[in-house]
Design brief:
- With about 350 residues, the chain is of the alpha/beta class.
- The chain folds into 2 domains: about 180 residues, no CATH class; about 140 residues, GMP Synthetase, Chain A, domain 3, CATH 3.30.300.
- It is built from 11 helices and 14 strands.
- The chain has an 8-stranded mixed β-sheet with strand order 4-3-2-6-7-8-9-10, sandwiched between helices. A 4-stranded mixed β-sheet has the order 11-12-13-14. It has a two-stranded parallel sheet with strand order 1-5.
- Strand 12 and strand 13 form a beta hairpin.
- The radius of gyration is 24 Å and the shape is globular.
- It starts with a helix and ends in an 8-residue tail after the last strand.
């Protein structure tokens, strides 16, 4: 009797593994490219090699929906496509301008792709990009390494995951920027800035220096370098922001104080620390004002300023944030800089 009870329990416990597939029977793409043309999607899957004898494989298929295309590719391969380990989703500019809403929503709801997967826009066709990447990489992980914080990621490059895009599509007050890259001439990959996204659509572009300011304003710890014209080059060691939001005559006002700690990398001549500090503060303010005018022109709150006013607005007013409040928003930014003249050396 005891044997029958044990056998019955094992039957229920082990039945959950009936559909598991061995890793040797699964294909694990590291990157997926998506291009869009007149209502049709083309999906490219970059599958790295798993042994010395294997080659990097790029498979592609076209169709009406991304999930349908992935199912079609999996059906025609000898192993099942598993996208849970996907690291990068690369889309072309046509797809970004058309709108990522349907594609991102489909990926999130299907749960085929991790919401932490990085989203990138390509300045060239994905098939050409993957073709050049595979020539420069032995294992297909080059693009993944480019966006790793402990590897190749620079503070001038945006880092936007799929869940953040999904959130921005359904948020009244929080838009995002997405990094833009292409294959380089002397390097494998070249960063060309970032895309300003509003409601899932690309409405403008930022260069790398402007992207650095976005990262700083959004509170990301950066170590970007800024050249103070005629004085030298400094590197940001740490940055901290404080905000105070309020309304005056129904106009949104935001007072922000940016505190920078920097080190001198090199100088031209013998400029004083006060002159470098003054010129740096002026340069940061000028660049920020230019950046703010550009994003206001596109109507996209990529700085997330609206988040600071959410508690002061009703839901109906939040729906009108872009149309009524953001376009008339004023930001008063103060920059305070501390220069550590010892560079990366620490006093003992």
């Amino acid at each position: 009797m005891l044997k029958w009870i044990v056998a019955t329990l094992l039957l229920f416990i082990l039945s959950g593994c009936w559909d598991n597939k061995d890793i040797n029977h699964r294909s694990l793409p590291i990157a997926m490219g998506v291009s869009y043309n007149q209502g049709q999607y083309t999906v490219y899957l970059d599958i790295p090699k798993v042994s010395e004898t294997d080659k990097i494989q790029v498979v592609s298929e076209s169709g009406d929906t991304i999930n349908n295309i992935i199912d079609k590719i999996s059906m025609n391969m000898e192993s099942e496509i598993d996208l849970l380990h996907l690291k990068i989703i690369l889309v072309d500019k046509e797809f970004a301008r058309h709108g990522l809403n349907d594609g991102v929503s489909s990926l999130i709801r299907s749960r085929h792709v991790s919401p932490k997967t990085l989203f990138v826009i390509c300045d060239e066709s994905p098939d050409r990009f993957f073709e050049k990447m595979d020539k420069n990489s032995n294992d297909g992980t080059l693009i993944y390494d480019f966006f790793q914080r402990n590897s190749g990621l620079s503070p001038e490059i945006a880092y936007t995951q799929t869940w953040k895009i999904f959130r921005s599509i359904h948020s009244f007050t929080n838009d995002v920027v997405i990094p833009i890259i292409k294959s380089g001439n002397t390097t494998a990959i070249e960063s060309t800035g970032s895309a300003i996204m509003k409601n899932g659509k690309m409405v403008g572009r930022l260069n790398n220096e402007e992207t650095l300011l976005i990262n700083v304003f959004n509170g990301k710890k950066t170590q970007g370098k800024i050249e103070v014209i005629g004085k030298g080059t400094i590197q940001i060691v740490s940055n901290h922001l404080k905000h105070r939001s309020y309304f005056v005559n129904n106009q949104a006002l935001l007072k922000s104080k940016l505190s920078l700690k920097v080190i001198l990398l090199d100088t031209k001549g013998n400029p004083s620390l006060d002159s470098i500090k003054s010129d740096l503060n002026k340069l940061v303010l000028e660049r920020f004002e230019h950046l703010f005018e550009k994003i206001k022109l596109g109507g996209a709150d990529v700085l997330g300023v609206g988040q600071h006013f959410r508690n002061e607005l009703t839901r109906t007013q939040l729906e009108e944030w872009h149309a009524e409040y953001f376009k008339n928003l004023k930001i008063d930014l103060q920059v305070s800089t501390t220069i550590r003249n010892t560079g990366n050396l620490k006093d003992t």
